[in-house]
């Protein structure tokens, strides 16, 4: 079992709002079951790791329990660092059901394109699943005769959200509960940037002619499945650091660069962003609308896309029109064009696109590409 402990500055990982919410929910349910909220609680992260979290405070009343986990973002502190992820749980009569709600400080989804229904709390699908998984691990027997309602709240979450771009995405009233692995890596630190460069250097030193850059764990898993013949050393998680990754590839004489990504990050690349973090410049929705227009989307749909704030919304519209493949191929080509202008004739560039479940949507190859993937 891994324990959340301090490590040297610049390398210490933290835990997502989703992981902290799952730990809080598990601690609160444990309180309902035993009559005492524990001071520490095990939590299974979405990536399968088991971590012990300290419980900041707990409360038990009749048919009610509350637990609080203080978020530690490690060496990637953002506006939610030290936030108090709070879970309140009650028994219900809905046998074998776990109902998840958002309380104060958790944003509300008001626009399409986020992968959540309008009107739902901004608790992303992976954290939702992880919260329920942790609850069922300890309450499976009791859930045969009862149900549970879980409410996640974040004191001061509305104020925290003002430091994000949530409002541009249509998430109002609080923060989002996020995380695909449960772990926050220090993406914004010099240490992580250096690790990206080091990854490229390792590949080059082993005589690899190709490197594959991905923005995270899901995209890396996707490209590894698509490119099974490549050695593991070819795969480098660049996070949001596109420019350091490409400059390292150029300096090391890499001949082929493959980028694996999803629609949001790829749009940032196509519009020329050098760092693709969500809290930097917003997605250029006019560019997204132009891509949709280029593949034959009706003008009314293009205007609707331009009035939204996410590239994901465009992808959903294109899927409804039967233009999903064409749209993502064109997006991939725009990424290649932007990068070829920046690094003319330096290396062959290819782009692989996947959806949020890791399913392949498209691929495209640049002008210097002389072989198929």
Q: How would you briefly describe this protein structure?
A:
This protein has helices at about 15-35, 125-140, 155-160, 165-170, 190-205, 215-225, 240-250, 265-270, 285-295, 300-305, 310-320, 325-340; strands spanning about 1-5, 15, 40-45, 50-55, 55-60, 65-70, 85-90, 100, 105, 110, 145-155, 170, 175, 185, 210-215, 235, 255-260, 350-355, 360-365. It is an alpha/beta fold. Helix 8 (about 265-270) packs parallel to helix 12 (about 325-340), helix 9 (about 285-295) runs antiparallel to helix 10 (about 300-305) and helix 9 (about 285-295) packs across helix 12.
Write structural notes for this entry:
This protein has a 5-stranded mixed β-sheet with strand order 5-6-7-11-8, with helices on one face. The N terminus is likely disordered. The longest helix has 19 residues. Strand 3 and strand 4 form a beta hairpin. It is globular. The protein is of the alpha/beta class. Helix 8 runs parallel beside helix 12. It has 12 helices and 19 strands. The chain has 2 domains: 183 residues, CbiD-like (2-Layer Sandwich), CATH 3.30.2110.10; 176 residues, no CATH class.
């Amino acid at each position: 079992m891994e324990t959340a402990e301090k490590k040297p500055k610049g390398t210490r990982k933290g835990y997502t709002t989703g992981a902290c919410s799952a730990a809080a929910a598990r601690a609160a349910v444990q309180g309902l079951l035993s009559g005492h909220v524990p001071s520490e609680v095990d939590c299974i992260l979405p990536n399968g790791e088991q971590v012990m979290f300290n419980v900041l405070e707990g409360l038990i009343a009749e048919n009610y329990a509350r637990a609080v986990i203080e978020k530690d973002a490690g060496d990637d502190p953002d506006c939610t660092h030290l936030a108090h992820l709070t879970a309140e749980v009650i028994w219900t009569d809905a046998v074998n059901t776990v109902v998840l709600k958002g309380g104060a400080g958790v944003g509300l989804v008001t626009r399409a394109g986020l992968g959540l229904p309008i009107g739902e709390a901004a608790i992303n699908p992976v954290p939702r699943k992880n919260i329920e998984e942790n609850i069922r691990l300890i309450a499976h027997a009791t859930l045969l005769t009862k149900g549970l309602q879980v409410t996640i709240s974040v004191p001061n979450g509305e104020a925290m959200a003002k430091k994000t771009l949530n409002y541009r995405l249509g998430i109002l009233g609080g923060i989002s509960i996020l995380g695909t692995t449960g772990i926050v890596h220090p993406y914004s630190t010099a240490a992580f940037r250096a690790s990206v460069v080091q990854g490229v250097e390792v590949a080059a030193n082993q005589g690899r002619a190709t490197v594959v850059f991905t923005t995270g764990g899901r995209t890396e898993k996707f490209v590894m499945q698509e490119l099974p013949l490549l050695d593991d050393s070819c795969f480098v998680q660049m996070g949001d650091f596109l420019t350091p990754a490409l400059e390292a590839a150029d300096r090391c004489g890499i001949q082929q660069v493959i980028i694996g990504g999803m629609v949001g990050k790829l749009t940032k690349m196509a519009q020329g962003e050098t760092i693709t973090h969500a809290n930097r410049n917003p997605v250029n929705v006019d560019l997204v609308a132009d891509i949709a227009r280029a593949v034959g989307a009706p003008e009314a749909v293009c205007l609707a896309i331009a009035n939204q704030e996410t590239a994901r919304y465009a992808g959903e519209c294109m899927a409804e029109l039967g233009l999903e493949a064409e749209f993502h191929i064109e997006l991939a080509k725009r990424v290649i064009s932007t990068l070829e202008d920046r690094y003319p004739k330096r290396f062959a560039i290819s782009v692989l696109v996947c959806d949020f479940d890791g399913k392949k949507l498209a691929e495209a190859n640049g002008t210097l590409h002389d072989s198929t993937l």
